[in-house]
Design brief:
Blueprint (H helix, E strand, L loop, with lengths): L12 H14 L8 E2 L2 H8 L3 H13 L3 E4 L3 E4 L9 H17 L5 H18 L3 E7 L2 H12 L4 E7 H6 L10 E5 L3 H5 L9 E3 L1 E3 L1 H8 L7 E5 L2 H14 L7 E4 L3 H10 L2 E5 L8 H9 L1 H4 L2 E3 L1 E3 L1 H18 L2
Parallel strand pairs: 4-5, 4-6, 6-7, 9-10, 9-11, 11-12
Antiparallel strand pairs: 1-3, 2-3, 8-13
């Protein structure tokens, strides 16, 4: 599968990857039943990080375009993007436009430059909604940022709560909307300008993560690896609530290779943040990947609750319309 991404574009790489695979499915280049490369294979082939590819695959799976089958692979599942759809019609219009420009004797590289210039002009005309996301852990912030950035016309800036609380000044970022979790709502209001209020988001563990923890045999020796102390407490709490483990859960942190090595030797299974590759060093990530078959990691998917995300999308849409004048 040929992947062509452009690091110079403003769109994140995961979004470009989602758009390319969606387009290829719409055009029939990737028919239903086609097996996509594994995350690792595509990372080696394209040079894109595994975390970015996994995020793109997760979005495509949520859209119903692909399906991951444990032990078998990832497959194009649905031809949702049908030939009569608006996306397919848009592709046809673009093809016709490209044909006309090529007849003017411009090269594909010239056309790519022209398109990029025109897209940049359009982007400058659109007043995107700027959102400041606040949380106490980098892992949760990465999750929030990823989900919010998928909403139309939205750009996200992240802030760690501790840095805000330590500052003597009010928290007054130049954004359209501030969002935080229900847990940190009161603390953040105390640092904002009187009268300002952030949008509250409810965060929750994904159902598949809870089910995987519940399915662990009671004698399992489980190891948890996290990037921050606070996020590790969320993961440990999930083990208590959903697991039936009789052995103490062992804890390690990215950045301490010796501890992670000991964790792997002493445990049967590992629980990792779903976005762990954003925080793991190359050595840590390589060590974990080398034992994936034996330890079958469980990925702790922490996400914005669906109702909160829908409410936030409505708020962003309202602000977007207002920004356009």
């Amino acid at each position: 599968m040929l992947i062509e991404l452009d690091n110079s574009k403003t769109a994140p790489l995961y979004q470009q990857l989602v758009e390319q695979i969606t387009r290829d499915i719409a055009l029939g280049k990737l028919p239903p039943g086609y097996q996509l490369p594994t995350v690792r294979e595509l990372a080696n082939e394209s040079g894109i990080s595994q975390g970015t590819i996994k995020h793109a695959y997760d979005i495509l799976e949520q859209s119903g375009l692909i399906r991951k089958t444990r032990g078998s692979g990832t497959f194009v599942y649905s031809a949702k993007v049908e030939l009569g759809s608006t996306k397919a019609k848009a592709m046809q219009v673009i093809d016709e436009m490209l044909d006309k420009v090529q007849k003017l004797s411009f090269s594909l590289n010239d056309i790519r430059i022209f398109l990029d210039l025109k897209l940049r002009e359009r982007e400058e005309q659109v007043q995107h909604v700027m959102v400041a996301a606040v949380d106490c852990t980098p892992e949760a912030l990465a999750v929030m940022c990823g989900q919010i950035a998928e909403l139309p016309h939205t750009e996200v800036i992240t802030y760690l709560l501790d840095e805000i609380l330590k500052s003597p000044a009010h928290f007054d970022p130049a954004v359209d909307l501030v969002v935080t979790t229900s847990t940190h709502y009161k603390d953040l209001i105390g640092k904002m300008i009187p009268g300002s209020q952030p949008c509250r988001l409810v965060m929750t563990i994904a159902t598949n993560t809870a089910l995987e923890l519940a399915a662990l045999p009671s004698e399992t020796r489980l190891g948890v690896i996290a990037a921050s102390e606070r996020y590790s407490q969320l993961m440990l709490r999930a083990c208590e609530v959903y697991g039936k483990l009789t052995n103490p859960v062992k804890l390690a942190f990215f950045g301490n290779r010796n501890t992670i090595h000991e964790q792997i030797k002493q445990c049967d299974r590992l629980l990792l943040p779903s976005n762990y590759e954003l925080f793991a060093s190359q050595e840590d990530a390589a060590l974990i990947r080398s034992c994936e078959k034996n330890y079958r990691p469980i990925f702790y998917h922490y996400q914005v609750e669906r109702g909160s995300l829908l409410f936030l999308e409505e708020q962003i849409h309202r602000i977007f319309k207002s920004n356009q004048g």
